[in-house]
Amino acid sequence: MLDFVSPENYQPLTPAADGSALVGADGARYPIHDGIPDFVPATGGEQPLHGNQDFYRTRAHEYDLGNSVMFRMLLAEEEPVREDIVASLKLLPGARVLEIGCGTCRDTVHLLRRDTTVYAGDLSYEMLAIGKQRLEDVRADFSRVRLFRGDAMRLPFPDGFFDAAFHFGGLNLFPDIAGALKEMARVVKPGGRVVAGDESVGPWLAETEFAKILKNSNPLFAHVAPLDRIPVNARDVSCRWVLNGSFYLISFEVGAGEPQLDLDVEFPGWRGGSHRTRYFGRLEGVSPQLRETIVRQAAAEGLSIVAWLEKTLRKATETD
Ligand SMILES: C[S@@+](CC[C@H](N)C(=O)[O-])C[C@H]1O[C@@H](n2cnc3c(N)ncnc32)[C@H](O)[C@@H]1O
């Protein structure tokens, strides 16, 4: 339990003397119910935290049946599909993995088949309770799995705590998809992988009856894979579609910051210059006639536009 931190300020937490909560030095208190620490603030009977929270709270007992129906109607076998999805994490032996939105732990059992330690969290306590029972039924080694109630956009872990982070099935309805992917990347070490997927019929199938029938029964299939919500520090990004093209699976490695460029590589050809001169050295425009004159003059002197402009402007400003 000592590995969880406050999702507010990432300060360490310790178990209360009576084991009823994890507490921070600042007085923050996260209750533990049936061994599951709860990092989701109580709403005090007001609006639920997220729009779909109620669904998974009140219908948790129906989830497993609906899940089986979904795999059957997609003519897919659940076990090999989930095994293939989890394989996208490229886990090495001994990996520490986050699964957020684990629901009733249908993928957690696949993660635990590998040499891993798994932190499986969900917004819905009711889904987690069913998941816990599943793990007990398959005699999971509870020293290798920790369940928690948490929000994908507010994870109770320090930066770089995990080797990989995984989510499947709820991303489209997260209120802040970019925030959730960024948060998953935050808690993964540089070089580790994030994998996340949800319903979305592949764009190449948009006009098929397959797509129209799926979207007619479940509008979630009309969602678009959120490639524009992937964080800028993602590297080696891929998106593939599983379950006959009905679910996207985004996968990326965690890097640092934006990709880098060598700004000073000189480009050959008539325009010349480098990224640095072209981007950071841009000047106001000149008349189209003068531009044509400069292009002709530079060519006559065997110079690129940038080289000619630099030479001429340096001379005009009498600097080196
Ligand atoms: C369709 S279920 C998928 C469950 C499981 N991953 C699976 O594949 O069977 C989506 C799950 O995401 C959870 N969820 C929704 N919003 C969440 C959030 N903001 N943070 C964590 N979990 C969330 C729901 O409670 C639900 O259990």
UniProtKB/TrEMBL annotation:
<dbReference type="GO" id="GO:0008757">
    <property type="term" value="F:S-adenosylmethionine-dependent methyltransferase activity"/>
</dbReference>
<dbReference type="InterPro" id="IPR050508">
    <property type="entry name" value="Methyltransf_Superfamily"/>
</dbReference>
<protein>
    <recommendedName>
        <fullName>Methyltransferase type 11 domain-containing protein</fullName>
    </recommendedName>
</protein>
<dbReference type="Pfam" id="PF08241">
    <property type="entry name" value="Methyltransf_11"/>
</dbReference>
<dbReference type="InterPro" id="IPR029063">
    <property type="entry name" value="SAM-dependent_MTases_sf"/>
</dbReference>
<feature type="domain" description="Methyltransferase type 11">
    <location>
        <begin position="98"/>
        <end position="195"/>
    </location>
</feature>
<dbReference type="InterPro" id="IPR013216">
    <property type="entry name" value="Methyltransf_11"/>
</dbReference>
